[in-house]
Amino acid sequence: MDRELSKFQIAQRSVLKKYRKEIWNPFVGGVKKYELILPHDKIAVCISGGKDSMLMALLMKQLHQISEVPFEVEYIVMDPGYNPENRKRIEENAATLEIPVKVFETDIFGVVDGVEKNPCYLCARMRRGHLYSMAQKLGCNKIALGHHLNDVIETTVMGMFYGAQIQGMMPKLHSTNFPGMELIRPLYRVNEKDIIAWARYNDLHFIQCACKFTKDDYNAHESLSKRKEIKELIAQLKKINPNIEKNIFNSVHAANIDTLPGYKIHNEEHSFLDYYDK
Questions:
Q1: Which residues, 6 or more positions from 197, have their beta carbon under 8 angstroms from its beta carbon?
Q2: CATH class as words, domain 7-210
Q3: Mapped to the 3 state alphabet, what secondary structure does the chain carry?
Q4: Is the pLDDT of residue 184 over 60?
Q5: What distances in angstroms separate CA 231 from CA 14, 23, 90, 208, one per listed residue?
Q6: Using an 8 Å Cβ cutoff, are 220 and 177 in contact?
Q7: Among 3, 49, 91, 221, which one is most buried in terms of CB atoms within 10 A?
Q8: Do residues 140 and 102 lie in contact, with contact meaning Cβ atoms separated by under 8 Å?
Q9: Is 120 exposed, middle or buried (0-12, 13-18, 19+ CB in 10 A)?
Q10: pLDDT at position 264, please?
C-alpha cells in the first residue's frame, strides 16, 4: 500500500502531472526561451504571500532539484507591515509547501500610510528596492518576481489606454539602481486562471495582495484600480474572441516598427521620418 502523500507532495505532483501542460511546461519554456537562468546564478525568489509568488517558489524549487544548469536559490519574504493574520498565513503556506523562507521586516506600510498621491506606486518602488538590497546581502545576482502572462497582457493594454504608449512588460531586466543585479519573471508565460485552478485543486489559500488593505479595504481599493478595469474589459473581449489574450501577448513579441510613426529605443525618441527617404 502506498504511503499517504503530504500536502507538499500532492501540490508538487499536481504541477508535474495534472497541470503539466498549463503550468510546468510554460514555466520551463519561458525560463529557456528568455534565458532567465544561467549557469552559476544565485536567485532570490521573492515571495509576497500571494498565489503567484508561492507557486513560483514551488516551481523554482522543483527546477532547482532537476535542472542540468547549476544555480542556487534563496527564498525571501519581505514583511512590509503585514497584519498578524497575513504574516501567519504566509509562514504556514511556506511550511506546507516546504519552502525554506527567510523573512525580513521593513516599515514600508508605515511610510506609505500618510501618502495621498500614488501610494501604490511608491510602495512598489520601495518593496523592490528592499528586495534587491536583501538579495545582494545574500550574495544573489538576480531576484525573481511572480508576474504572470495576464500581468503582461494587462500592462500592454493599460499602456495604450492610459499611458498613451505601446509598451510591454519584459521577462527580465537589468537593475538601474543595483549594478550587477537582474530581475526575472519565471511565470511570464503562465496564465493566471491556471494558477487559480492549481491553488483551488490543492485547497491552498493565499493572501490577496501585498498591501495593508488586504483584509479590510482590499475590495473597495481594488475596484477603483485601472488594472481591474482592464482585466474585466479583456474578459469581455474574450467572449467575442477566445484568442484575445494570446494575440495581445504575441503582439508585443512581434512589433513591426516599420509601421509605427514613432518609437523609443533606450528612452531615445525616433520618428519614421528618420529613415523615410533612405
A1: 19, 22
A2: alpha beta
A3: CCCCCCHHHHHHHHHHCCCHHHHHHHHHHHHHHCCCCCCCCEEEEECCCCHHHHHHHHHHHHHHHHCCCCCEEEEEEEECCCCHHHHHHHHHHHHHCCCCEEEEECCHHHHHCCCCCCHHHHHHHHHHHHHHHHHHHCCCCEEECCCCHHHHHHHHHHHHHHCCCCCCCCCEEECCCCCCCEEECCCCCCCHHHHHHHHHHCCCCCCCCCCCCCCCCHHHHHHCCHHHHHHHHHHHHHHHCCCHHHHHHHHCCCCCHHHCCEEEECCEEEEHHHCCCC
A4: yes
A5: 27, 21, 26, 16
A6: no
A7: 49
A8: no
A9: middle
A10: 92
* Neighbouring C-beta atoms of residue 92, cutoff 10 Å: 11
Cell numbers for 8, please give them.
Answer: 507538499
User: Distance of CA 14 to CAs 17, 23, 28, Å?
Assistant: 5, 10, 15
> How far apart are alpha carbons 211 and 200 in whole angstroms?
22
How many Å is the Cα radius of gyration of the chain?
Answer: 20
- Say how far apart CA 202 and CA 208 lie, in whole Å: 17
Q: What digits encode the pLDDT tens for the residues 80-136?
A: 989 999 999 999 999 999 999 999 999 888 888 776 676 777 888 889 999 999 999
For 193, left (φ over 0), alpha (ψ -120 to 50), or beta?
alpha
Q: Which three cell numbers stand for residue 150?
A: 495576464
Residue 252 grid coordinates: 508585443
Per-residue pLDDT averaged across 44-52, rounded? 96
Whole-angstrom Cα distance, residue 158 to residue 73? 33
CA distance 147 to 211: 16
Q: Which residue has the cell 542540468?
A: 68
Residue 181 in contact with residue 63, Cβ under 8 Å? Answer: no
